[in-house]
Write a structure and sequence with these properties.
Blueprint (H helix, E strand, L loop, with lengths): L1 H24 L5 H5 L9 H9 L15 E2 L17 E2 L6 E10 L2 E12 L6 E9 L7 E6 L9 E4 L5 E6 L5 E6 L7 E6 L5 E9 L11 E8 L7 E6 L10 E2 L9 E9 L5 E8 L8 E7 L10 E5 L20 E4 L10 E8 L10 E8 L10 E2 L11 E8 L6 E7 L9 E7 L7 E4 L3 E2 L18 E5 L2 E8 L6 E4 L2 E2 L7 E7 L5 E7 L6 E8 L2 E4 L5 E5 L4 E11 L3 E12 L4 E4 L3 E5 L4 E10 L5 E10 L10 E2 L6 E6 L2 E4 L5 E12 L4 E7 L7 E6 L14 E2 L7 E5 L8 E10 L8 E2 L4 E10 L2 E4 L2 E4 L4 E9 L6 E11 L6 E10 L3 E6 L3 E3 L4 E8 L6 E5 L5 E3 L5 E2 L5 E8 L4 E3 L3 E6 L10 E4 L3 E5 L6 E4 L7 E5 H4 L2 E10 L5 E11 L10 E6 L6 E19 L5 E19 ...
Parallel strand pairs: 40-58, 43-52, 46-53, 60-67, 68-73
Antiparallel strand pairs: 1-27, 2-30, 3-4, 4-5, 5-6, 7-8, 8-9, 9-10, 11-12, 12-13, 13-14, 15-16, 16-17, 17-18, 19-20, 20-21, 21-22, 23-24, 24-25, 25-26, 28-29, 29-30, 29-31, 32-33, 33-36, 34-35, 34-37, 37-38, 39-41, 41-56, 42-55, 42-57, 44-45, 44-47, 47-50, 48-51, 49-50, 51-53, 54-56, 57-58, ...
Length: about 1100
């Protein structure tokens, strides 16, 4: 009977094995079926090698590693005593060493234990978590590349107890949890099983020992991990040992209360000064996705029981699926440390992780390391503080942080990968220290090289190690990390010592804006041997004060950093307290403050917005717009996908949205403008691609709530992505907010509505800015300078009516960071044309203005204004008599709209000024010179003469009063006239008492003339000689005539011609002078 039963069992087992092998190896299985047999949440190399052996997974291929760049081994940090710390490999044996754990011996800070994921190189055997150790402060290492106590499945976590026992925790080869320990410094190891495989794998474990001298549970060991499979599937579970690792408690789940949407993973454990046990882990509310929250649980009885878990921070964005620009898989598992020193922060819990953007905002401007802390056993938590100190938002990546707290002095030290100084595909290793409980940090490069991450060939996809390590005690700090400078992945240690000297704190700088004087003060608790302070501005020493205050004069407007250190005897310098100050600001001014534009249908126009920087520092700005509509929100058809392949990332404009797998994602709060004919590029990435996957994109251009417009053309479909689309708004698009839908699906019809078996649907919003454009959309303006933004208005294909928008100008002006410019465009068919019968007239000559109007209501009123905005007429077609050049603008109103015609510029020319003088009398035989002035003009006298001057006498006119008129026409054809009366008298025996006898000789002559004046009465006369052009060539005034008076007139320098001599006395007498 027993034999029969045995045979039956063997037969059943054979059938089962054959069936399983058939299921796995069946070539008829689709790619989708085979791929779904791999659980991508698991991060263990052994698991993926088993999947590869079954033909379900492809391991990393062999690739050539880019050479590393030596950057120097010097450490430049005030918080570090060590000035030079060359990187030391943990072994010279050919192997790969990745995923590091390190722990300092609590009894000897020079003794440090390290374990890594260790493999052959090239990868063959997976040795698992091994052991290396140093007894000289990390300068030389020994140990073994093979697994501690034998082969295992890796994921190392190490610890050393106060009793001197060393521990290496790992995933056991059966897929459970195990530990190896040694009491003879690694010469021999004892292995113990902590927990069996729960069904699939016990993954992402961490291990800790309570070494607090004040803890009632000192020596307790804690092992936590994620169960994949079994009754605690996808939860964090815990086990403890109270007998130095010899026996272990049954696993208990501690994470259920957070209700993770997908799973909990990446647990980290630590303990407090009184035996408190804390656990933190990443929460995944979907899969595949980035980390969305951090879970936390605690035990206050040495791990015997655990309080319900909670989410201590939500709305974070890790990097598990968004990844970095490096060729390696990454995560944002939280790492925790607890201060068990006797310092001021004793008992404080600290947690670090990598976040995309600021936690809670989570925009992809950079990936940074953040820390939160709790001083009340995890009941409340601080706001996140950024650990890396390079400028925020520059697109740099800082990731895979680990943190430790020195149990003797409470100093925090962190390690992370960092690319601030290198290209986006490279990185260096940085550390950061804080001696004030994580409030402020000093970070510095610790690695000697910059390298290009690359996965280890033969291991899981993208794998180069999932965490770094750092441990400290007694001021000795041991950072450990893997890089590929040798051509393959090797782990390195670069030990340093923190600065124990008392340092200044609380540096405060206040700048007086008017003068640039900076008042600095700080606090300092004097230490023995103190000499003076070093005060640095922008890393240059500017003073060595001995008091806690200093006044510094800034050299110019700008931003400055200050550091203050304390200097001690023996040329020792403490760590620094830092602050930053700014003298001056960027200040924005814009003109105009509102914009109105009236347009005819199917017409365009431009206006200009002037952006000025009236501040003292460079101003950067960017522009975006918002179309204002009052329409009701549309309700769109339902759409969803069944998953597997999913939309992992969508980018367009400023939108960069990395998401998990959901059947439908409503991201309509993410908006980008589509401006006129300017294309908007959309890129869609596939999180789990198949070769036949398809993508469709639709935009509701007419905003009627139906995706009935033609689908957007998508490149790369069908295919595995990424997929690209160039969106251009058609001329018929309705302006304002509308919806864009993206569907990823497998084979078959691609439609905007309904549910598909596979894939996902995501909705976004677009602002259709069809009638308004602006350029440029961003810029930098130096102090005192301006930028001009061209605003374009386009009424083509628009109905008549009013259109409203806002232009938003965001800048770094601290007082006015956003300027809002209201825009109003009016589209009307009211048309007006105006013209004048002439646009150039002489002074006060009439101008006929004419207006023609069409469209609108048909009933119009009119108004004409000049350039000064004075109303000059309310007639439609007025006649005006302008007295100066001006611009005349016609306005017409139909009772609804008022429209202005283009202004008519009328140029008014001055009339010539003509003055023939006062009316006069002359005796017969005498002459009178008449001068019309205006040299260069044309002349017409009533005598028929056309010269500027004429000479009249009684010979030509006879005796009596005669009117003589001249018309003068200037260069602009303006005419002016003047008339003078000349009375020609017969002076024989009339008024002899007033008579003056005049003789001129020789005449004609050579230019020297003798003038003989004889009079019966005493009088004074003025002499004037003018040439034919009316120019005075000789004059003499107040000549006394008493009897006979002889005067010589010298015209010898004048050319030949006829000249006029005018004698003004009691009467006016004129004579012709002829020079031959």
């Amino acid at each position: 009977m027993k034999k029969t039963l045995t045979i039956l069992l063997l037969a059943l087992l054979a059938i089962t094995v054959v069936g399983v092998n058939w299921l796995i190896g069946d070539d008829t299985k689709s790619e989708r079926d085979r791929r779904n047999m791999v659980d991508t949440r698991i991060d263990n190399n052994g698991y993926y090698q088993r999947m590869a052996e079954k033909g379900l997974y492809t391991l990393n291929p062999e690739v050539k590693v880019a050479p590393a760049v030596f950057t120097g081994s010097k450490i430049k940090a005030f918080s570090v005593v060590t000035e030079d710390s060359p990187d030391v490999p943990v072994t010279e044996i050919n192997s790969t060493q990745s995923e590091n754990s390190v722990f300092v011996n609590p009894n000897d800070p020079e003794n440090v234990l390290n374990s890594n994921n260790s493999t052959q190189n090239p990868v063959g055997n997976l040795y698992g978590a091994n052991d290396f150790h140093a007894f000289d402060g990390g300068l030389t290492w020994e140990g073994q590349v093979e697994g501690a106590g034998g082969s295992n499945s890796g994921d190392p976590a190490v610890a050393i107890g106060l009793n001197g026992r060393w521990y290496v925790n790992y995933i056991s080869n059966p897929g459970g949890q195990g530990v190896a320990f040694t009491d003879n410094n690694g010469q021999t190891w004892t292995t113990k099983t902590i927990a069996p495989n729960p069904g699939q794998l016990a993954d992402k474990n961490h291990f800790w020992i309570d070494n607090s001298l004040t803890s009632p549970y000192e020596g307790n060991l804690y092992n936590l991990w994620t169960d994949f499979g079994g009754t605690n599937d996808l939860e964090i579970v815990a086990s403890r040992s109270t007998d130095d690792g010899n026996t272990w408690s049954t696993r208990v789940s501690i994470s259920n209360a957070v209700n993770a949407g997908s799973h909990n993973q990446g647990v980290n454990i630590n303990s407090g000064p009184n035996g408190e046990v804390y656990a933190a882990w990443a929460i995944y509310d979907g899969w595949p996705t980035d980390e969305s929250a951090i879970g936390f649980a605690k035990s206050l009885d040495g791990g015997a029981t655990w309080q319900p878990a909670s989410r201590i921070i939500s709305n974070i964005r890790g990097i598990r699926t968004s990844e970095t620009g490096k060729n390696m898989r990454v995560n944002s598992f939280p790492v925790m440390t607890v201060d068990i020193s006797n310092g001021p922060n004793a008992g404080t819990i600290y947690i670090v992780w990598s976040n995309i953007g600021t936690p809670g905002v989570n925009t992809a401007v950079s990936t940074d390391v953040y820390i939160i802390k709790s001083s009340d056993q995890g009941a409340t938590w601080s706001s996140p503080v950024r650990v890396n100190q390079d400028p925020f938002g520059q697109g740099k990546e800082h990731y895979l942080p680990w943190i430790t707290c020195d149990p003797e002095n409470g100093i925090l030290s962190a390690i992370f990968y960092d690319d601030r100084n290198v290209t986006s595909s490279q990185c260096e290793v940085f550390c950061a220290n804080s001696d004030d409980g994580g409030e402020t940090w000093e970070d510095f490069k610790v690695s000697d090289v910059a390298f290009t991450p690359s996965p280890i060939p033969g291991l899981a996809g993208g794998y180069m190690g999932d965490y770094l390590g750092i441990s400290a005690r007694g001021g000795k700090v041991y950072p450990v990390w893997p890089d590929n400078r040798s051509g393959h992945i090797m782990s390195y240690c670069s030990p340093y010592e923190t600065n124990p000297l008392n340092r200044p704190t609380n540096l405060v700088g206040v700048v007086e804006f008017e003068s640039g004087q900076t008042n600095l003060d700080w606090t300092y608790e004097a230490g023995p041997g103190f000499i003076h302070f070093n005060l640095y501005r922008d890393n240059e020493i500017i003073a060595v004060p001995t008091s806690n205050t200093y006044i510094d004069q800034l050299p110019d407007y700008g931003m400055y950093s200050y550091k203050v250190t304390a200097v001690y005897e023996g040329d020792l310098e403490s760590g620094a307290t830092t602050t930053g100050v700014q003298w001056g600001d960027a200040q924005i001014a814009s003109d105009p403050l509102t914009v109105y534009q009236m347009l005819m249908p199917d017409s365009t126009a431009s206006q200009y917005l002037i952006i000025s920087n009236v501040g003292q520092l460079e101003m950067s700005y960017d522009v975006h717009s918002q179309i204002i509509t009052t329409k009701e929100q549309n309700v769109y058809c339902d759409a969803a996908g069944g998953g597997d392949e999913y939309i992992s990332r969508v980018t367009f404009g400023a939108v960069d949205n990395a998401t998990a797998s959901n059947s439908y994602g409503d991201y309509t709060s993410m908006v980008e403008n589509v401006m006129g004919s300017q294309p908007l590029e959309v890129v869609i990435e596939n999180g789990n691609p198949y070769a036949a996957d398809q993508v469709g994109v639709w935009v509701d251009w007419d905003q009627d709530g139906v995706f009935n417009d033609e689908a957007v053309v998508v490149s790369g479909t069908p295919g595995m992505g990424p997929y690209t689309a160039s969106i251009i708004a058609p001329s018929t698009a309705s302006p304002g907010l509308t919806r864009m839908r993206i569907r990823l699906t497998y084979t078959g019809e691609v439609a905007p509505c309904g549910t598909t078996t596979y894939g996902e649907v995501e909705d976004y919003s677009l602002y259709i800015v069809s009638w308004l454009s602006y350029s440029p959309s961003f810029g930098v303006v130096a102090p005192g300078e301006t930028d001009t933004i061209t605003l374009g208005f386009d009424a083509r294909d628009l109905e008549t009516g009013d259109y409203y928008a806002n232009i938003f100008i965001n800048s770094n002006d601290p007082d006015n960071g956003e300027v809002v410019l209201p825009i109003h465009m009016r589209v009307t068919d009211l048309q007006i044309v105006s013209y004048a019968d002439t646009t150039s007239v002489c002074f006060e000559n009439p101008v006929q203005l004419t207006t023609e109007v069409a469209g609108g209501s048909g009933e119009y009123t009119f108004m004409w204004k000049n350039q000064a905005e004075d109303i000059i007429s309310t007639e439609q077609n007025p006649i005006i008599l302008p007295t100066m050049s001006d611009v005349f603008t016609a306005y017409a109103s139909d009772g609804i709209d008022t429209i202005a015609a283009e202004g008519i510029a009328v140029t008014v020319y001055d009339l010539p000024v003509v003055d023939l003088g006062i009316d006069t009398e002359i005796c017969g035989g005498e002459t009178q010179l008449l001068n019309a002035g205006n040299e260069g003009a044309s002349f017409l006298w009533s005598t028929g003469e056309t010269t500027q001057t004429i000479i009249v006498d009684s010979v030509g006119f006879g005796y009596g009063i005669r009117e003589i008129t001249v018309a003068v026409t200037n260069s602009t054809n303006c005419v002016a006239m003047d008339t003078v009366k000349v009375n020609f008298l017969d002076c024989t025996s009339i008024n002899e008492q007033l008579s003056l006898k005049v003789d001129v000789y020789p005449n004609p002559g050579n230019g020297l003339f003798n003038l003989q004046l004889s009079g019966s009465t005493v009088q004074k006369v003025n002499l004037t000689v003018m040439n034919a052009g009316g120019t005075v060539v000789y004059s003499a005034n107040a000549i006394q005539v008493n009897g006979n008076q002889k005067i010589q007139i010298d015209l010898s320098r004048q050319p030949a011609g006829v000249y006029s001599l005018i004698i003004d006395g009691k009467q006016r007498i004129s004579r012709k002078l002829i020079i031959q």
